[in-house]
Design goal:
Two copies of one chain form a homodimer. Helices cover 49% and strands 5% of the residues of chain A. Chain A has a two-stranded antiparallel sheet. In chain A, helix 1 crosses helix 3, helix 1 crosses helix 4 and helix 2 crosses helix 3. The two termini of chain A are 27 Å apart. Chains A and B meet through helix 1, helix 4, helix 5 and helix 6 of A and helix 1, helix 4, helix 5 and helix 6 of B. Chain B binds a DNA duplex through helix 1 and helix 3.
Chain lengths: 155, 155
DNA sequence: ACAATCCTGACCATGACGGTCGGAATTTCC
DNA sequence: GGAAATTCCGACCGTCATGGTCAGGATTGT
């Protein structure tokens, strides 16, 4: 029951794109630098995000990626879906589940529970947008700019 | 973002123990038969559940396992915790996380999100008890006893 | 004694995951 | 035109958790 690093990285990359929104494309080299993430890996993720329609790419010297929509209109759920596929605690509650393929469907005591769980997870992720994420963060930074944690100094 | 089969199996086993509650121990051989799960694997899980204090074992011929508490008093969260460890979407929101060990803690845009997510998941699992699970199921069976799905015929 | 059961530890195969690499295609700048 | 910066793509790889098996020991009822 954990979010893959892939999804986490993807989200971190998307928040960077969100910050740069409206100011031209941001290269993944930049993202890798800022977020201290492996560049080659981000390339893969960026590809998924592009194919998923969340970002568009510009090649060449001043190229990079930019969001196809305003950060307010992109939910975390979309990002997670795009890089990680549907979040589903067990197979039989995913949307492409074919009724009957689980032999125990009729007598399953816990399917209702898993459906509730999925709904609950989806709800949290759907409610949160990229805009909120970067907004929350700037709030945090504004509140405590003079007290950097000694342990959190560098990468 | 999925529940491991381990947790799922563990829960299924626990619902069987819950059904048998008050009527002596239930052997894992029985559980394996009823739930169509691999016996040797269930043995492992049963061990975890016992060490976690959720069930107690009786050895010997009419032995087996029985819940240490009434099914109303055992939440799904406990079961999942016991077999799978804490459910935590990312490391930095687990209970044993040492503040500061994530270098980006101060500037992390998404930690709040993950905490909310964890809380939401925990809430759903905490609210549901074994008793509810088997009760829901008997409801289901009572409502549609005469209409078995054609595709769900065998194991 | 024997059979049923729990108990333990070791073992194993598979697949997902996180990550790297090499190189091709595209674009801008000089 | 050429070099540099970038996206793009496919292949590859090591590690680790997972799901599962196996052999055998310990315990207990009949």
């Amino acid at each position: 029951m954990r979010v893959s690093s892939k999804a986490h990285y993807g989200l971190r990359m998307m928040t960077e794109f969100a910050r740069a929104y409206g100011r031209g494309p941001l290269s993944i080299a930049e993202v890798a630098r800022i977020e201290h993430l492996p560049l080659a890996y981000l390339e893969q993720l960026a590809g998924q995000l592009r194919r998923g329609g969340l970002v568009e790419s510009t090649r060449g010297v001043h190229g990079g990626y930019s969001l196809t929509r305003s950060p307010e209109l992109i939910s975390v759920l979309e990002v997670v879906h795009t890089v990680e596929g549907e979040v589903s605690p067990v197979e039989c509650v995913s949307t492409d589940y074919v009724s009957g393929s689980c032999a125990r469907e009729g007598e399953c005591a816990s399917r209702g529970l898993w459906m509730r769980l999925k709904e609950s997870i989806d709800a949290v992720l759907r409610q949160t947008t990229l805009a909120e994420l970067i907004h929350d963060q700037s709030l945090l930074e504004a509140m405590a700019p003079a007290e950097p944690h000694p342990e959190t100094s560098h990468d």
